[in-house]
Amino acid sequence: MTMMKAAVFVEPGRIELQDKPIPEVGPNDALLRITTTTICGTDIHILKGEYPVERGLTIGHEPVGIIEKLGSNVKGYQEGQRVIAGAICPSFTSYACQDGAPSQDGGACGCHGYKPMGGWRFGNTLDGTQAEYVLVPDAQANLAPVPDALSDEQVLMCPDIMSTGFAGAERANIKIGDIVVIFAQGPIGLCATAGAKLRGASCIIAVDGVDSRLEIARQMGADVTLNFKNVDVVDEILKLTGGRGVDAAIEALGTQLTFEQALRVLKPGGTLSSLGVYSQDLSIPLGAFHAGLGDHILVTSLCPGGKERMRRLLNVVASGRADFGALVTHHFALDDIEAAYDLFGHQRDGVLKVAIKP
Amino acid sequence: MTMMKAAVFVEPGRIELQDKPIPEVGPNDALLRITTTTICGTDIHILKGEYPVERGLTIGHEPVGIIEKLGSNVKGYQEGQRVIAGAICPSFTSYACQDGAPSQDGGACGCHGYKPMGGWRFGNTLDGTQAEYVLVPDAQANLAPVPDALSDEQVLMCPDIMSTGFAGAERANIKIGDIVVIFAQGPIGLCATAGAKLRGASCIIAVDGVDSRLEIARQMGADVTLNFKNVDVVDEILKLTGGRGVDAAIEALGTQLTFEQALRVLKPGGTLSSLGVYSQDLSIPLGAFHAGLGDHILVTSLCPGGKERMRRLLNVVASGRADFGALVTHHFALDDIEAAYDLFGHQRDGVLKVAIKP
Amino acid sequence: MTMMKAAVFVEPGRIELQDKPIPEVGPNDALLRITTTTICGTDIHILKGEYPVERGLTIGHEPVGIIEKLGSNVKGYQEGQRVIAGAICPSFTSYACQDGAPSQDGGACGCHGYKPMGGWRFGNTLDGTQAEYVLVPDAQANLAPVPDALSDEQVLMCPDIMSTGFAGAERANIKIGDIVVIFAQGPIGLCATAGAKLRGASCIIAVDGVDSRLEIARQMGADVTLNFKNVDVVDEILKLTGGRGVDAAIEALGTQLTFEQALRVLKPGGTLSSLGVYSQDLSIPLGAFHAGLGDHILVTSLCPGGKERMRRLLNVVASGRADFGALVTHHFALDDIEAAYDLFGHQRDGVLKVAIKP
Amino acid sequence: MTMMKAAVFVEPGRIELQDKPIPEVGPNDALLRITTTTICGTDIHILKGEYPVERGLTIGHEPVGIIEKLGSNVKGYQEGQRVIAGAICPSFTSYACQDGAPSQDGGACGCHGYKPMGGWRFGNTLDGTQAEYVLVPDAQANLAPVPDALSDEQVLMCPDIMSTGFAGAERANIKIGDIVVIFAQGPIGLCATAGAKLRGASCIIAVDGVDSRLEIARQMGADVTLNFKNVDVVDEILKLTGGRGVDAAIEALGTQLTFEQALRVLKPGGTLSSLGVYSQDLSIPLGAFHAGLGDHILVTSLCPGGKERMRRLLNVVASGRADFGALVTHHFALDDIEAAYDLFGHQRDGVLKVAIKP
C-alpha cells in the first residue's frame, strides 16, 4: 500500500504509467487520493517536449480528490473530505503572493519571492495529479471542500479551465453593456465566454473554426458566433460594431494571428486580455496599435489559484450560473491514460476535456 | 535563560512588568529578541479597560528585533538577522486573506476564515511585543529584514503607525493634483499627511489643536495648517476650496466631531477615509450626506500587515521619502515601561511616540 | 401649436395638468415630443412638499420621445428620431463632469463646477418630462437613439430606474462568486438585483415585505428571497453565510433600519452600496462598524446619466440580458396623470411603475 | 487687424510663417491671443512628413494665451483672462468621452463617437497654436484659468508634456514603495520621472544616454541614473532589484529597444506603461513575456486633456510639487520660429523645450 500508479514524463514523446511511492506528508501538506483528474493542453506541450519538465515527474495539475492524510499544521479540514485544489498552488506567504501576484510565487526566499509562473507546481516542479495520490503543498491555503451535491465532473473544470477563462474576462475590464469578443472556443475560450457573460457584457462574439464549438459557445453566452473559415473575422466585427471596435477582446489560443486580430478589432481605449500560451515572439502591428497612442490596455493572465478562488468557482457551479459539464466529452480510467493522451493530443472525436479516474 | 520580562495586562488600570516563560517555537513560528518596541494609543485603551483583552496577556504590537530562533518550516531567514513584523500579522492562508482582507483574518477555519480585526494578534489574542522576546506566528509571511543602514528608531513606526497612516491615504483614492485634508495630527494623522503627499496631493490641509503637531505636519507635507482652537475648520476649508470641498478627507482620531467635519468639507463624489477607532455610534448628518445622493465613498482601514507591506515601508524610510524619526520623542528601558505608560497615557511633555528598549 | 400640457407642481399636495408654452430651442438644446414617461418615488416627495422645487415647475425626469427640433450645434441626430435621455442630464463640460462625478455637475462655472445632485435637472431645476414636450439641455451629450425593435415600455426604465439600480451593483465591487444582498425590492431594488446578477454574484439574496415583489426578484436573479415580516433578516443572512456575512449589501430604500441591517450582515472588508434617499440623519452602529476597523467601504450613488450610459442600458435591454417590461404595471394618458399620481403615491393595486402617454 | 501670422505646414520639410485670417468665433468657441507656445517632437514628425497633416494647416498644440473673444454659449470666463488649454481638446460630449477615453474622441457622431487620437485637434485637424491667435473648440470644456502668480514659462509644459508624462506614471499602477524605471529622459520622460515620484515610488531609476538629462532626472526625483552608453541597462536593473525586476517600467521614447528593455526588467505581475510614439511594428520577446503567462499589464497613453486635467496640473505647479521651468532652455519670437524648428529639430545646444512668443 505504499506504492501508487502515476503518469510520468519519460522523455519527449513519452508519458507512461509507472509505479511510484506514495508521498510522505509534511506538516503543511495534505495527501489527496485522486478521484478525478484531466489532461490540459499544457500537458500535451510537455509530452511533445515543447515545455521542459524533469524526466520522471508525474504530470497533471487538475485534482479532484479525497483527503487521505493531513499535515499536523493543517487545520479546519477532515480526512475523508472531498476537495479540489487549484492547478496553481501558491504558498500565499511570499512577497509576490502578498503583492497581488500569487501565480508568480517564488516561494520562501527571504528577499525577493518572485518566479515567473512559480505558483504552478503540480506537474511542473512537483509531482502532479495524474496519479492515484497527489501531495498538496501549503494545504492550508489551497484545499477547497466540494459541496456534496456536485459531482466530480461538475467541478473538474474549476482548478484550471474555469479559473483561467474567467480570469481572462475579469481582467478585461468588462462593464455592463460591453461588446466583447473571444478568439478561440477551446475549453479556456468557452470559459472566457461564460466569464464575459457573468461580468455583464451585453454582446458577446465568439470566434472559432469548428462549428460544434461555436454551438457550445452559444450555450455559454455568445450572442454572435463567427467561423473564421467562412468570414473575414476582423471585417465582420468592425461591421457589427459600426467601425468602432469592441470594448474588450480576449485571446484564448496563443498565436500571432489571433493576437493580431484581437488588436485590430479593439476600440481605442479598449482592453486586450490575453490567455494564450505563445510559442514565438509576438508582433504588434503599428497601425492597429495606433503607434502607441490608442490608450490601449494589454493584459496577460496565468490561472489564479488558492482556496478562496476555488470556493468562488464552486459557488458559481453550485448556483447554476455556469455549467461546464458539457465540456467533459470523454472518460478514461487512469490505467488507460496513454490512450487518453492520444485522443486529446490529436483532438479526435470532438474531444473537449477528458475525465481520468484512478 | 528560560524566563523573560514582559509587560502584562493585569486588570483595568494596571499593566505590570512580570516574569514569563520564553515561548516555545513551533514549525511555522519565529522567536524574536526585541530590541525596540513602543506604546500605541490602543494599548492605552487596553490599560483603561476600554478594549478588553485577557488578563495575563503581554501587551504591545510593534516589534523591532533579532531572530533568536526559527521554526523548522521557515525558510530564507537567518538567526541573528534584524527584522520587523507588522502589528497586524495575518496567516495569509485564510479565505479572508486571499480575498483582499488579510487584516480581517479568521485563520484556519475550513469554511469561512473571517474575523473582524482578526489579523491583529500581538497584544490582542497572542502575547505581544512589550517584552524581551515575542513569538511571531506564520513567520514565513511576516518577517521583513531591516537594512543595516537604518536604526531601530527609524523603522519603529513601520509596523503600525506608518502602515496605518499610509493606508488612510492609499485608500482615499488620491489623484495627482488633489486637495486633501487630514483631521488630527497625532502619530497616525502625521503619517497620513506624509502618505497624502506620497500619493500626489498638491494641497494638503492638516487640522489639529496643538501648534507643535501642526509644525511637524508641515514637515510631513502639509501646505496649510488649521488649529481648530483658532478657526472654524469647516468654514475655513470651504473658503480655501471656493466652496467646492476637498477631494479626500482623512479622519485620524475617532470622534463624531472630526468624522462629521470630514464629511462636511468633502466634495460630492469625494472619499472620506477613516482611520480612527470610534467609541460610540456615529451619526451621519443628512445634509452633508446629500441625503445619500452625493456619490460619496466612505472607507475604513485597519493597519495592513505582512512582510511585503513592511518591505515597502522600509524602502520608503531608506529612500528618505519620509522620515518619522522625529516622532520618537522619548526613550525608556523596558524596566521603566510603567513610567512610559504614565507619560504616554497622559500625553505629557509633548510626547508623540516612546521607544522602549529591553 | 405653441402651447402644451404639462404636469406642474402648484404647491405641496398639488400637481396639476396645466397649459404652458412649448419651449424655445437654443443652439445646444433638443426639443422632444414625449411619447412615454413615468412617475418616480422622488416625484411623490415633490408632491408632498418633502423635496422642494419651484412652484410652477413641470415635474418628471424619465423621457422617451421623438426629436421635434434640434439646436443648431447638435450634430449626428435627425428630427423624427426616437430617443431617450437620462434622468440625470449633465453638461459633461464642467470640472465635476471631467473629474468622474457628472451627476454632481455644477455647470458652467469657471472655477469650481460642482453642485450636489446638480446633474439632475429635469423636474428639479428645469421643466420636466411629464408634458407633451421637454427641452433637453446639452443635447449632444444626452440623446440616445432607441433601436426600432424596442417598445417605449421596454426602454422606459433606462433613464432612471435601471441606471440607478445597476449603479448600486456596479459600485458594490462585486466579483464573480460573491454573495450579495439587496434590501428592498421596489423598482430600484429590483434593478439592483438584476445588476448584481449581471456583475457575477453567484448568490443573490433579496429582502422585502411584499411577496409579489419577492416573486419578481426571483425573475430578476435572486436565489434566495426573505420576507422581513416572516424572518429576522439579519439572523437569516448570517446563518446563510455561516456567520461570515455577505460580500456586498445594497440598500435600496433609504431608511435607518435597512441601512443598519445592510451593515450588520456585511463581512469585514465588504462594501455597502447605498441607493436610498434618506430623510433623516443616519446612525452607524459601533459594533457592526467594528469601531471603524472593519476595512468596510460605504458608497452612495446618484443615477448616472449621459448618452453613453443610455446606450449601454439600451444594449442590455436589446440583448435580453435583463427585462424590466414587467415593472410597468399600469398605463395612463397624460390627461389622467393626477389619477396616476394618486395610484402610485398610495402604492395601490400592486403598482410598480406607471407608463404615462401624452 | 483681421490677419495674423501663423506657422504653416507647406510640404514635407517646410514649415513657414504665413499670414492667415484670424478665425471667426462660433457659439461654443473661444479665441485666444497666444502669449507663449512651444514646439513638440510631434511637430518635427509633421515637418519631416512622417506624420501627415493637411498642407496649409497651422502647427502647434501647446497654448498659453489671453481670451480675446468668447463664444455666446461659453460661460464663467472673461475676455482678457489668461488661460491654457490642453494639447488634446476633446468635446467631452461624445460616446468615447463619456466612456473614459476622451483623448480618442470621435466627436459629434450619433452612433459611435470614437476616433483614434481624435481628441488631438490643434495642429492636427484644426489650426494650431504656433500663431498669433488660436480658436479653441468646445471652449467650455477646455479653458483653464492660470493663476496670476505663475509665469507663462512655468505653465507651458501643462498642455502636453506634463500631462503626458504624468499619465505614464498614473497609468503604471504605482504603489507606495514601488521601484520604477523610466526609459529616456527627454521632456516627456523627465515629466514621467517626476510623476513617478508624485505617485509614491520609493526607488526611481532613470535611463538615458545624455548625462545632462540624467542630471535633470535627479532633480525630478530619480534615485538612480543609468547612462546606457556606459552600462548594460537590463543587467544593471536586474542587479539593483536582486533579480526580481521593477514594479513598473515607463517607456518614453518609442523604439523597439527601449520597449523591449522595459519588458525585460519588469517583474512578473508588473506594468509596462508606454508613452512613446512608435514608427514601426513592435516585437514582444517571448521569454521576457513569459510566453503570455506573466500576469503583465501593458498600457499605452495619449496625453489627457480638458480643463479639469489642466486645473490639476496648474495646482501641481503652483504648489511647487514639481517645477519644469528648467525644461525651457531657449526663447524665440514667433517671427523666428523657423530658426526654433531648426534648433529643436536637430537637438542642438542641449535644447529641451523652446518658448515661442508672438
TrEMBL record, chains A, B, C, D:
The keyword Ribonucleoprotein does not apply. It comes from Serpens gallinarum. Belongs to the zinc-containing alcohol dehydrogenase family. Residues 13-352 form the Enoyl reductase (ER) domain. The keyword Metal-binding applies. Its cofactor is Zn(2+). This is NAD(P)-dependent alcohol dehydrogenase. It holds the Pfam family ADH_zinc_N. Gene3D superfamilies: Medium-chain alcohol dehydrogenases, catalytic domain (3.90.180.10), NAD(P)-binding Rossmann-like Domain (3.40.50.720). The lineage of its organism: Bacteria, Pseudomonadati, Pseudomonadota, Gammaproteobacteria, Pseudomonadales. Keywords: Metal-binding, Oxidoreductase, Zinc.
